[in-house]
Amino acid sequence: DAKTTQPNSMESNEEEPVHLPCNHSTISGTDYIHWYRQLPSQGPEYVIHGLTSNVNNRMASLAIAEDRKSSTLILHRATLRDAAVYYCILMGAGGTSYGKLTFGQGTILTVHP
Amino acid sequence: EAQVTQNPRYLITVTGKKLTVTCSQNMNHEYMSWYRQDPGLGLRQIYYSMNVEVTDKGDVPEGYKVSRKEKRNFPLILESPSPNQTSLYFCASSTQGANYEQYFGPGTRLTVT
């Protein structure tokens, strides 16, 4: 199964951009890259996802490497409410991995005022 | 309000006493899934269901059963719980396919003594 690797923790200052990296060197051609975040005592919350092209939404941007072996979640201006654990996830869309979802260990993001 | 609900939210039980954790979604989603979250191990998928009467094993299915008789419900059954199933459990749902975000429930904290 395709796995993801993320740094254990990262720190940022409020109002500054944050780049959260994720390596997924064994990604298959049909795997979507999803990002979720989890605040303490809550269920994970969807942030963004993509397949090949870079994606933007109101929460963040997702930059996907050309070979798809890595991706970066970009929070353009971190706020204190962005402090959470961020998970990079591959979701299989074909073959035997269809529907199967593999979480990485997650990156603990600390945002300093 | 679109949501995934889980019951109970907290449960303390004893080894061997069968229990069921319910999960229900009101978004007419085809896909539903169960995860457990343990310190240091992150989120791991237990079972998932692509549609009614269709279920598949995730990464850690041992000791669990699921059923999907109706689209909106996806109960998790522990027929003979053991202490190593003490964990935080999350249910999630989404529109069919990897190109859609997953909505997570609030979690069920289970303690097996």
Verbal overview:
The complex is a heterodimer of chains A (113) and B (113). By secondary structure, chain A is an all-beta fold. Helix content of chain A is 0%, strand content 47%. Chain A has no helices and 10 strands. In chain A, the strands form 2 sheets. In chain A, strands 1, 3, 4, 8, 9 and 10 form a 6-stranded mixed beta sheet that branches. Chain A is globular. The relative contact order of chain A is 0.35. The mean pLDDT of chain A is 91. By secondary structure, chain B is mainly β. Chain B has strands at residues 4-7, 10-13, 19-25, 31-38, 42-51, 54-57, 65-66, 76-78, 87-94, 103-104, 108-112. In chain B, strands 2, 4, 5, 6, 9, 10 and 11 form a 7-stranded mixed beta sheet that branches. Chain B is globular, with a radius of gyration of 13 Å. The mean pLDDT of chain B is 95. Chain A binds chain B through residues 1, 30-32, 34, 36, 41-46, 49, 51, 87, 91-93, 98-106, and chain B through 4, 31, 33, 35, 42-45, 48, 50, 56, 58-59, 90, 92, 97-99, 101-107.
